[in-house]
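Question (not urgent): is this output format expected?
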Amino acid sequence: MSDQRHEVIVRRAEQTDIDGLVARSSALFAEDDGARDPGVDINWPRKHGQRFSSGLTDPGRLLLVADGDDGEVVGCLAGTLVEPSAMKPVKVATLVSRYVRPAYRRDRIGGRMVDAFRAWAKESGAGSAQVTACATNAEAIRFYERNGFASQSVTLEAAL
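Got this back:
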């Protein structure tokens, strides 16, 4: 695995990246949630993706993009901070979503984005970082485990 297969830059998203964020988030919803959770509206990113704009200047949110060879957004990551509460008295950074186009997945782009997320979380005063993956998405779970995450809890769900 080499970062040199594709020339990719991981950086904070800007306003001009919104369309790319929406496109990559739409791909994530279609590929992951849409295939695994029938309760998810896979059209949510296209309907509400402009909400990414508010995250660009919010210090409690992180939006990263990975620029491909031709300047196209080939990957994205969204993270947020949850302030301490009486029940959990530590600030937690939550990796909300991450997606890399299939052709770029063996270039360590996802790992670079996770590294940037963890650095941001630490700089922001978070005491821990968390991520949720669909239980049936073994590839994503292995990816997060390779990147330092470990199972903390399991959520069980029943359709009604």
